[in-house]
Amino acid sequence: CYHASVMSALMLLLCLLPSASCTTCPQKCRCEDLQFYCDTQGLQAPPDGVDKGALGLSLRHNSITELSPDQFYGFSQLTWLHLDHNQITTVQEDAFQGLYKLKDLNLSSNRITKLPNTTFIHLINLQILDLSFNQMTALEPELFHGLRKLQILHLRSNSLRTTPVRAFWDCRSLEYLGLSNNRLRSLARNGFAGLIKLRELHLEHNQLTKINLISNLTWNEIRVLTPDVFETLPNLKILLLDNNKLSSLDPQVMDMWQSLGTIGLSSNLWECTKRICSLATWLSTFKGRWEHSILCHSPEYAQGEEILDAVYGFQLCQNFSAPKFHV
Fold first, then answer.
1. What b/e readout covers 263-278, taking b as 16+ CB neighbours within 10 angstroms?
2. Phi and psi for 255 in degrees, rounded to 5?
3. What is the mean pLDDT of residues 8-21?
4. Alpha carbon of 317 to those of 74, 274, 282, 312, 320: distances in Å?
5. Exposure of 325 by Cβ count < 10 A (0-12 exposed, 13-18 middle, 19+ buried)?
């Protein structure tokens, strides 16, 4: 008993020292260096006892259904917050008020159907936002307004049907945008305006039939590409258009592909007649790499031939040199 009293007194003295850390760890959490991991505990809200000076908080795989206003108010030092794999259906305005230092927010794998315009307005330093695997059918026009430091945005596997005009206008630092596995049928002409640093855009597994701007658009129904919106993506590096229904390309489209390092054009309906000459010429001078073989679909005599081989072998285009081996 004497030793216990001595230890308690020593702990009290240590807590009074300016440099001492006396952070306690809630019973249902694992704690390390002001990082609180309170996962898979059936929690319906953040547990009591989490230090307001916490740098990170994980509440993954719990039973949280709603985020109320000022839910995390006072946690001004948080740099990451993981709320994925809960049952969240509602996020009230100002739920994230006060989290000015937050850089990483994960809300994936919940049941969110709609987010208010001002949901993220306080998160001025946010760099990573994951909203994938929810049930959103639409995005509010100014949902991402103010997120000027955002670099990665995951929106895959929702039920989005379109994107608002200039939805990402304020996301000037965005490098990755994932919109795959939604129900997109069309994209607003200026839906991606402002994304001057975008490197990777995923739109695969949607229901697009005509597109004005692209990156990963595999497994859609695209027949036509127009060049205008490429002007807003001057740094696009990867463009995947495999498994669509393209038969030819407008030369002006390829003129906008100056920054590309990787192209994917396989499994389309390429018509190897004189209409293919602009694409063949572009491919023959392209210094990057392309994914998979690019084969002729028609006419019958050229079916299954590599485009460059067909153009040269059947002399489809004037002044076309023999294709070189391409890696």
1. bbbbbbebbbbeebbb
2. -65, -20
3. 41
4. 68, 6, 13, 8, 6
5. exposed
One-letter amino acid at 23 equals T
Q: How far apart are CA 107 and CA 104, in angstroms?
A: 10
Handedness of CA 172, 174, 175, 176 (dihedral sign): negative
> Taking the CB of residue 307, how many other CB atoms lie within 10 A of it?
22
Residue 99 burial class via C-beta count within 10 angstroms: exposed 0-12, middle 13-18, buried 19 and up: buried
∠ CA 160-46-53 to the nearest 5 degrees?
Answer: 110
**How far is residue 138's CA from residue 44's CA, in Å, rounded to a whole number?**
27
User: Which sequence spans correspond to the domains of the chain?
Assistant: 270-327
Please indicate whether residue 138 or residue 218 has the higher confidence score (pLDDT). Answer: 138
C-alpha dihedral (123, 124, 130, 134), degrees to nearest 10: 50
- What's the rounded mean pLDDT across residues 158-183? 91
Between the alpha carbon of residue 88 and those of residues 109, 181, 210, the distances in Å are 9, 21, 34
What pLDDT is attached to residue 230?
65
* 323 pLDDT above the threshold of 60: no
Q: Give the pLDDT confidence score for residue 219 in this predicted structure.
A: 64
Tokens describing residue 146? 């103010």
Burial label, 287 (beta-carbon count in 10 A; 0-12, 13-18, 19+): exposed
Question: Before 18, cis peptide (omega within 30)?
Answer: no
pLDDT at 10: 40
- pLDDT tier at 193 (50, 70, 90 boundaries)? confident
Query: In 90-208, where does DSSP find H-type helix?
Result: none
Global confidence as pTM? 0.70
Asked if residues 187 and 211 have their Cβ atoms less than 8 Å apart, the reply is yes
CB-based contact 282:256 (threshold 8 Å): no
**How far is it, in rounded angstroms, from Cα 303 to Cα 301?**
6
